[in-house]
Specification:
With about 250 residues, the chain is α+β, with helices and mostly antiparallel strands. The chain is built from 6 helices and 14 strands. A 5-stranded antiparallel sheet has the order 7-6-5-8-14, with no helix packed on it.
Amino acid sequence: AQSVRERVLRALETVGLAGLHNRGATELSGGQQQRVALARALVYEPSILLLDEPLSNLDAKLREQMRLEIRALQQKLKLTVLYVTHDQAEAMTLSDRIAVMQRGCLAQVGTPSEVYEAPATEFVADFLGRTVSFEGRVATNSSGLGIELLGGGAKLVLAGAAAASFGDSSSVRLTLRPEDIEIFPNGELQINQIPAEIEQVAYLGERFEYQVRACGVSFVLSATKKQRYGAGAAVRLAIDPERVNLRVK
């Protein structure tokens, strides 16, 4: 019995609850209750720990705090953790490797940066964060892979090495992350810029979010408070060609 008590107290100390072992569940905060759940698992000194959406019932600020605590605990104990979540932020901040499941099958396995920046499928790209997709048609030329975007007539030029994988007039889908698109005031289009219109504006304190429409597609972009545009404003969108994922439709 003494050994059990010692292990319980040690587990509580590990999760930052030393001295609270006599409190009832109703006397603990939401974050403390989650720590108790962790302590219950750690008291068995497992070699691998399964956490199935442990933060789903917490508010946003507490989830963020607990993410950091779980990561610190995992690194301190050198423990293998299998963490199940639908929350992108949890997956990205807690993981050394991410396995994305689709209908019971592994869609992709890799580091957070690999899965986010080079998604293997459209499902993976859409599941981990927001994406922007355009449809286009290939028109190769000497300077690289030319893509004529449908719904607006705008053109992009991608890296020349990609041209070998696509034939002229191939129908393709381009996907990229919103943070790889930059908003500029209206003016003469430069290479890899497309015309767009601001549809709606949302002020979020530290930044603006603009719903824009370009080439028949509506999507949301973030911008600093230094960039201020009103609804209905014409703008240019600069697309980073190195960040575009291209697939045959």
